[in-house]
Write a structure and sequence with these properties.
The chain is of the alpha/beta class. It has one domain: Metalloproteases ("zincins"), catalytic domain (Collagenase (Catalytic Domain), 3-Layer(aba) Sandwich). The protein has 5 helices and 4 strands; from the N terminus they run E-H-E-H-E-E-H-H-H. A 4-stranded mixed beta sheet has the order 1-2-4-3, with helices on both faces. Strand 1, helix 1 and strand 2 form a beta-alpha-beta unit. Helix 3 packs across helix 4 and helix 4 packs across helix 5. The longest helix has 17 residues.
Amino acid sequence: MIPQTDFTVETYIENAFEGEELNNLALPWEQWIQTWLKQLESTLPADHSYEVSIRFCSDREIQALNQQYRQKDQPTDVLAFAALEVDLPKTELNEPLYLGDLVISVDTALKQARSQNHSLTIELAWLASHGLLHLLGWDHPDDQRLEQMLSQQAKLLKSVGIIS
């Protein structure tokens, strides 16, 4: 893939979570996703603009999606629906390249943040970066690939100042 010098990112955020935990978090998702994609530029399909959506939901909703798409009847922290893995019709030249959808369970993120003794912001960013890597074709079928992916996630969070 050819590295690019400039591109834009459109990020759509949908909060379907009914709790108040996200109300006080004004997180710069579009800025983070753009920075992360610039870090991952060598793995991106060449385009002038990219689009990603993030939906925040409950354990109940993500469990239903996990059952429907992965045949796992349990909640999970993040699901990634990669548009690059399916044959979508070609978009107009001026349309952003649709990378896919991320669905993040805020219930699970809250539990994991507490168990890891860090903030909800760190956990949500961690899950979004993990999902974004999946949208770009990363996977973790074994421990070695998982370690590579976790290392890349840490680099992404450092690049936006979430962790040091």
